[in-house]
Every structure is written in structure tokens, then in C-alpha cells.
Amino acid sequence: MRIPGDEWISDWNAAADRERSLCVAWLMNPGDPPRQNVRLTVCGTLVSETTGVADDEQSDVIPCVLIPRLMNAHTHLEFSDLRKPLQPAEPFTDWIRAVIHYRRDHAPDGVSGIRRGLGECARNGTSFVGEITTTAESEAAYHSEAGVDVLSFRELIGFLPEQIDSQLAAASAHLAKDAEPGISRGLSPHAPYSVHPDLFAAAVELAALHDVPVAMHLAETRDELQLLQNGTGRFVDFLRELGIWRPDVIAADSAPLRYLEKLSHLRASLVVHGNHLSDNELRFLCRNPHVATVYCPRTHGYFGHTLHPWKKLVAGGATVLIGTDSRASNPDLSLWKELQHLARLPDTLPWPRLLQLATTVPSAALQRNHQPLRAGNPADGVLIACEADSEGQLNSALAEPSSQPIAVLCHGTLTSSA
What we know:
Layout: H1 6-14, E1 20-27, E2 35-43, E3 46-52, E4 62-68, E5 70-75, H2 92-105, H3 111-123, E6 126-133, E7 149-156, H4 164-175, E8 183-189, H5 197-210, E9 214-218, H6 222-230, H7 234-241, H8 256-263, E10 269-273, H9 279-287, E11 291-295, H10 297-302, H11 310-315, E12 320-322, H12 335-343, H13 351-356, H14 360-365, E13 381-385, H15 391-397, E14 405-410, E15 413-416
Parallel strand pairs: 1-4, 5-6, 6-7, 7-8, 9-10, 10-11, 11-12
Antiparallel strand pairs: 1-2, 2-3, 4-13, 13-14, 14-15
Helix pairs in contact: 4-5, 8-9
């Protein structure tokens, strides 16, 4: 059997009231060895059985790998209307200027981009996004795409002391909203160069009071480190240009470690990017695995950063999650392509271990309920086109550009990724 088309998918969905079987060349659950020639039996929205495919049924096998749906730990969906990343990528402060101009020229709530981005994530097999929410109105768009849960981190930006109260009021209003299916909430004091230290500390206290996670962009660029360490560099020029630079806001000899120490007081927190963490900070994260680092591989490459320490973190017992960031720094929102990027790196992790970074690891870090494709669990998966006769061939074949999602299984319903 070749790759299933729309008619086959339609027939599958039309039989939702009875038991159905999906025969795949490979089933790969996170952390488990891949299984070849597997029949996945679905009853309603659940997997009822996984068994081997009989010899006389080999013609039913779809040349693909079935994996669980993926979790994207960091997105800015408001930029999803972009067809290519914003430029220039360097210096980073010029890219931020481009972001500011884009926001001024487009709908301030980003609803159009959010809806488009959620649809793209769904088609690529993503079941969850850790989304940075910039306005109260943005959240209305999170209901637009069934099957993608959103952890809405309310972005807080305020470098000046007089901005603290209004930002905390926005944070409190965000966390006070009624619970809604598929939407959970957290806070995101944006970055050291855009958030007053007192606003950051108060946001962490507020998050602790409500027992919600915090996500912060940290150790993203060397310019940020220069700002923290001695109050000089491109960020000073940038903040002066905005009319908000005050040399007394950031204490002398500051470092990302000061922020990490406060984040560690929470049950769960995210260090977004962490491209330039010191050895001391890496050791801190290894001792405090509840402070997770979100690595966005292709965005990291777009900005030309030096080698990311994600493998050191994993080896040391720290928590590493994978994100796409946004279309302002990435050509698309495919978390699968982020995993492929990692798979092509030298001395990388094996595929079942890489898969954990986008499934079971973020599930545990953010108190979600992601489950592998096993009997009794939800029938939620992604079919990845791939032809391989052995596990050795599979490892290399999955990294090839041709190995892309062809269909998504969401609560027992198949949808084409085309």
C-alpha cells in the first residue's frame, strides 16, 4: 500500500462507529525501541491494541512511521502570517526593531496570525503549544483550532518602575480568568532588557501564588550578557532610542543566574533559548531540573549563535524542551523539522530519545497528560512518510527532508497534513 490519500482518510473517518485498524511500517513511542510492521487498532477515540502485522497483510502496511503528537514548548503565534523571517537577523537589536515595526503595521492583537499558526501546528502534528500572549484580546483566537491545547503565557514588558503596576494588573487579570477547556495560563516577563527586576520578582511571586509556570527569554544573546554585566553595549543604545534607558535599573555585575535562582522557587518554569549560559548556570540547571530550558534549533541557527549547550544539559540531568519560536525567526512552525534538525547534528541522541524532548519531557515539566500510543490511551499520533527496511535505515531516513507528516490522528480522527 502506498501513502493514503483523501479518499482513504475519508473512509477511515466514516467508520468511526466501529473498530478500525491502521497498519504502519514503524511505530515509535518516545524512549522505546521502534517496532516494525505494527497494526494499531482504534475503537472510538482510543487505541485498543497494537500487534504485529500478519504476513498475508503486508500489502496493507503504509510506508510511514507513526509517532505520538508533539508538544511545542515555545511559540509566538502572532507572527504566523509572515511568509519568511524578519530581517536583519544580526545584530539582534535590529531584528527587535523589525519586530516592533511589524507589530505597529499589523493588527495589535495578532488574532489572524494566531489562527493561522494554530492551524499550521495542527496540520504538522502538534497537540500543545506554549504560547506567548501579548494582549488580552489575543486569547479569543485560541479556540479556533480543535485539538491543539494552549498554555497561554501572558507577556509582561516594562523596563521602567512606573510601568510595574499596570503590568502586574494585566498579569493578575490574565490569571483570574475562568478555566476553559484546552487553555491554561502562565506568565512571561519578557527578558532582562525589557523587564524591570522588581517587575520580574513580583511576577514570580504572583505565579507562585497561583501555582502557574513562568517563561522568560534568558541568556539569548551576548549583547544581553554585556548589558547585565556592565550596563553597556547595543541594548543600551536600543533602550536610549526608545527613551527608556536608566542606568540604575539593572544592578552592576548582574547575570542570568540571578534570574534562574528566582525561577527555581516555582514548581515549573521555562528558560527560553538559554543560548549563552555559563558553566555555573548550566550546573545550576542540572541541579534544578524543574527549571527547564527551551531550545529552538532553527531559530538558534537563524541568528547565528554559537553551539547550544542542550546536549550538556541533557547529559547532566537538566530538563530540555523543544520549541519553534515564531515565523519571525523560522520559516515554519513544524516541530517535526526541529527534531530533524537535531537528528542531523553530529553525536546527536537516538530518535526515541529525541522524541522524548517533544513529548514526555514537556508533559512532565508542564504537568500535562501526554501519553504514548498504547492500548487504552488516546489515538493521537502523526504519520511520517518514511521507507526503511531496518532500524539502522530508519534512523537516517527520518532525518531526510522527504520524511514529513502526511496525516494526523487526533482522538481517532485522521486529517491530511497536505
